[in-house]
Amino acid sequence: MPTERQQALIAALTRLLDDEPQVQAAWLAGSLGRGEGDEFSDVDTLALTADGRAGEVSAALADNLATVATPVLVNRLYGGRVLSVVTEDWDRFDITLVEAADLARYDARDLKPLFRKGGPVPPTRTDGPYRPDPGQITRLAQEFLRVLGLAPVGIGRGEYEVCLSGVDQLRRMTIDLMLEENAVPPARRGGALRRNPLLTEDQRRALAAIPPQSADRPSLLAVNAAFAAVFLPRARRLAAEVGAAWPEALEAATRRRLRGALGVEI
What we know:
This protein is of the alpha+beta class. Helices cover about 45% and strands about 15% of the residues. The chain has a six-stranded mixed beta sheet with strand order 3-4-5-2-1-6. Strand 3 and strand 4 form a beta hairpin. It starts with a helix and ends with a helix.
């Protein structure tokens, strides 16, 4: 349920879009559209424009954003098809402009209608059980091992601050793997800042047990080894379940590399 503040922003965006002659319909999208939002959710809207008019509508809406709130940041993404806005009160909202053919990418179950003057509507999908793609699991394991295998380069050069970005990549891939374990379809994962409801207690405990990271050699060695201990057994198990090829040679080479260069066993 949107907060009063979010409801006021939704109402203002509805008026803005409804007043634009070339906007045929609009929906509340994102976590609020799915009914999964909270007080921290931004307001995502989807607006259907007449064919060939998305660019024109984007420019017109950008000129009138002050009727919604005072913007302090307006990012025009994908050629203006998405207006991503931060207001002076740090409210956040996006306006995504689509034409009729684009609606096939959306699911009516994830959208709440705001108004409709005409035009087509998004389809209502009937999803079967999600099964992780074996090729994706193989690629995820390969990339994890590749990033892990680069640790001796950054640590060897003393680039400890830079190495922290590698740790962040390992964390992101570990969470992505956990979502695959839980059979959460990509379309149902929502924003990157909302993961707790999609993870099990066991998974969250495993992530919480990763030691704190800091920009020094002992910390980086410990945290790289800890992520490997969480990721690799889970990834192997999932790969076997879905019939994904496991990168045996890359894993063996990475183990040798970390053992020889850093004295780390994973």
